[in-house]
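Journal club prep — side note

Before the paper discussion, L.F. wants everyone to see what a predicted structure for a comparable chain looks like in token form. Sequence:
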Amino acid sequence: MTPYRFIGDADTALGFRFGGVPGDVASNPQEALEVFQAALADKSLVVLVLTEQVAQWLAPQVTAHKLNASQPYIATVEDVWGHKGKAQTLEQLIFEAVGVKIIETK
């Protein structure tokens, strides 16, 4: 088992899988709670990465876990649409990832 795990939307989960981080897709609060509880039961898990949406759905559970100060460490990341669901273009995502602007010349 890897010491890292991800919970979030399908697109962001795919990106994490490309980076070697396994994870679960959660498309609603109930699914998120189920996979969150399963992840916490995994004693080999060191870092649990949640998208902002999942962290929002599970706010009471995440806060309770953090106050307990036990493993795994929980990190929150933006999903593929950017901060708080704001849609981003492919050009914006590339610029944020590698710092290169793509411009069209005629």
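L.F.'s comment for the group: The mean pLDDT is 84. Keep this in mind when we get to the figures.
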